[in-house]
User: What shape does this take?
Amino acid sequence: MGDAKLYTRVKASDILTELRNYEKKPRSGVYQKTILKKIIVNLSIGDNEVIILASDVVRILFNMGYEDLEVKNMCYLYLITYWKHCPKEAISALRFMVEDYKRNSDTSVIDACAALKTIASIQLKAYIDALTPLLEDAFNDSNASIRRTAAYCVAMIFKSNEVENPGSSPKLLQMLNDALVDDDLDVVAAALNSLGDITLNTDKLKLSTDKEHALKLTEGMASCQEWCQVSILNALLTFVPQDHKIAADLIDLILPYLQSDNSSIALNALKVIVYFSYYINNVLDVFPSLPQSISAAISNLMLRPPEVQFLAMRNVILLLLDKPALLDLDIRMFFCQYDDLLYIKDTKLEIIFLLANEGNMDLVLTELQEYAMEIDIQMVRKSIRAIGNLAVKIEPTSEKCVSVLADLLSESIPYVIEEIAIITRDILRKYPGTFDYLIDMLVDRVSLIKESDAKTSIIWILGEYSSSISKSVTLLKQFSETFVEESTETQLTLLTAIMKAHTCQPYNKELHALVEDILEVTIVDIDNPDLRERGLFYWRLLSSGLPNIIDIIKPRLPTLKNDQAALPNHMREELDLCMGSIASIYLRPVKQVFRHCKPRTLSDSPALVRQDLSNSRLSNPLYNNRRSTLYRSRSSTLSSNSGSFRSRMAFTSQRVNDLTINENNQPSPAENNSESHGLSGIMRKLSLKK
Amino acid sequence: MIAAFFIFNRKGEVLISRIFREGVRRNVSEVFRIQVISKLSDIKSPVLTLGSTSFLHIRHGPLWFVAVTRDNADASVVLEFLYNFVETLQITFLNDRNRVLTDVDVMNNFLATYEILDRIINYGYVQDWDKNTLQHTLRSGIVKGKGLKPKVSHKMKTETHKVSNAGAELIRNGTMLLSRANSTMKRKSSMLVSSSNRLNSFGNGSQQKLSLSRSKKSKISLSVHEDVNLLMSHDGAIIRAFVEGSIHADTDFTNSPICSFRLIKRKNKVVGKYRKPNNEDAAFLSDGYDNIIDSDEEEQTEEDDTEISTIGEQSENKDDYDTVEAEFNADGRISEHETSSGAKGMLKDCNFNNCVSLQDFDIEGIIRFTPVSAQFEVMKYRTDITNLPFMVYSNIASVGANKFKYVVRLKSHYSKNNIATDVSLKIPTPPNSLDAEITVDMGKAKFLAAEGCVEWKFKKAIGQRICQLTATVCTSDITTNDGTRNSWRNSKPPISMQFNMGGFSTSGYRVMYLKVEEPVLKYSTVKTVEYSSSAKSYEIRI
Assistant: This one.
């Protein structure tokens, strides 16, 4: 029979009564132990009432702790958890723990370590005072486990020690520093972790490793166990190579660890290699097979559980954005499995998007088209968006992408059409006049579009290309019938679209009436100040009788450029040093995610080279530039909102900019006159109504 | 680094809570319960960051293992730790790393869980421990449990979701849950169960003492298991085909000798080009299958020849077990170097147990290790494959308003000497299917309405055979809702297939030159190598 039956919430007062009953007629120790277990269960569940039992727990510790190790461990756990709330009782237990450590330091290493850790966990002054001499003793112990535990204990008490007795801090640090040259690498790794932790939280101290030590650690890694290797790899980031050779030597030593079974070792090895590659001239000439090794490591990581896959893929994205030259990945590795988790599919899609180039476009498109016919609507939308973005990103194959979209359009599935409507806007802007057949197909299916974003997009298209779309006026009119119920975004777009259409076809009677109606509605009926102001703005504009009004309302659009860097340089450098960490999942600088953390930076050294690894070294020179074009997808959860927001901002700012630079594209005077005539006519009417 | 650690059960109740660092309040567990566990259906990422507190979680059967951090912790360390911790609990509480822990197992051993946690984590940093021997040094008593039936692939995740919906009242009752889970998981468990039987011998923790003591015979047996993954498009093009192989060693040695072997690929044969015949029914049925078989058989014999010539001295290599006696001569070494460069080039994606010398593999392509325990996994590898054991051709046509006609052909592409067992195909049917008339020329097939598929099973499948299934599926008359019809037409789940094959390595990799060196005692060793393959995710889009 196990302890599962004890897993119920028990009132602390009931436990107390049980204990008192026990005292009246003592039975076997088992009974007392069971009560203690109940206390621990309640502690686990999060029932903090058991705090009132502190004195009893300490008493049990003294009664039974010497013989029964389970009881001792339970009492320790209780005290570690609640020492803050019962300092008096905790101090009374100190004597037991110190004895426990001294008694066991020679015989039972495990118990000695446990005692030491417990003392260090309880950060009362008395405990810290008692611990310092013990630590001195522990650092000189012959057993490596005890020395290792001692190293961690220093980190545990360091912060409180600063407050309680600041004088002893240098002594503690000295002990840790001595541990750095311990014979046992386990101890060294612990000391490195410990020092790393201490320096992370204070600005005063900095951990750095010298060349000899770095080499010694790296060479010694082979004889270490896995977690020790992780610590050493992490510590290597504190070594700043002063010449290219040492960096190359270290990379050479670390390369085999990419193939480790432990995903943490593999990712940390990757991080260290990327770090040292900053200190080598032309790293790819020195290590021509580096991309293959890294890619092999990644394909190994892709076989791990989904969480690890996810982490690995986020880091692949980082590398693809930053240093695609270091990768040589097979895109098929990232094709989605039917039953992949949603977040895995998402991330895979992003990578597919980044890896796509002219060479593999056919493969990518077939695959994306497959996803676009899935049942999962989110996936469908994302893959369609990816196809559209590919069309914008890679010019030579845009035709193929668009024909795939046209193919999908012909199926007349509402959400497919909606998504295509959204991306068509970008495609039309990027390739003006090339894919007008997409407009026709969309217009035919306009009745299926329900979603606000998609509506906005199609309305924008109708406004921008109104003169070439035969039904544009009728459709705009249709949309304006439900104007009041639409979202603000759609309303604004519709207003602008109608204005644009009007400036293009000033003599269209129907439009004339439409403009009148819509301005009236926005100015008179609408409460939303943004919308009303926009309406008033147009009204004043029209009534101003300016000659070049078309340039204000419908300026020539700047062509879409897709070479904005998704991540600024300094951020990429910082992220390179955070590979495998939580910040790498969000692809955000550390400061932004964790306000209290010190960001890592590349240290300056004569060997530091900021080389351009953004071009992947494919044999076909054609792709070279394509691969480097950066990524502007909105699919990742974090960037999604800001992404679309940014694009919206871009739109508005374009308009503002064009207001000032309209001399460049003067339309013919005749057009201007007719325009202003038509417009001012409306304005006059409107003001009369008022 | 790790600031706190929690284990939750499916209902979101905390089973274990341990705080390692200041700055984390005990009630963060509430936050996780509300933000993640209660939003089971859409988990966007395994990491959730709120303010500067991050939660990293993995799921294991009904349990959630959660680590909380307050800084920019190394996520790779945390995730790897969580998986390793689960494995340690499995070995310690269940004696079997292939069974799934339940909350009862954790509750029964909560003291041991805390103790293991304290042993592994030092102030939030993970330190080394030995999964197999840890339990012998624990101070707390351990109550061994049975756990749940294993689920190996992450594919089952979706199934667990279903199970979790099945009812929270089952949670406390492990056995009932087991039976319920069984019925839901049956779909994929046929292969898994057998694979667990295969692996059972490895997980037996009580036997896992370092065999440093005297033993009568020294022996090493390697078992090479390959999980085959295939994704094939509906027109028969291979989108992705690879195997995930793993090599387990079962050793019984005096002292600790150095073992080494190489993985060498048999001469790669090209098995027929996979072209899907035209969509027309007639062409589909009359396509030159016989020719393909003939040519295959030729290749097969050819390949057998080469196999004999490569392995040379061994005569028994046609059996399921290859007994490889240690016979090394200078010639062997030399020829080995030539082949190894090729083999090394081929086998890049592999990772190794910590006891394997990575440098030796990097430089010479030799896998050299000193056994760390009696049973352990030496290495894993991944390699693309060109020769698939099974080919599936399918043709689905809609005949009449509510009828679909299925023609599915299964062709086994391996040599006649091999036999696949527990072969099953799941052929999805439209969501509103009512019934199916099925005829098969081999095996058994039936329509499973609940799962929306036709299941076609074989107890045994011999190599070089073609089997055919024809079915007419009637669907209910849903004309009003056009959407469902559309979505079925456009997106169908793939045909998925399960199989097990003993004595067959799909990738063609073989363990060669297995050698045991013991400088002091110089004993001879009994060595065996066993191969097996099974389907992990064998899917054909339709």
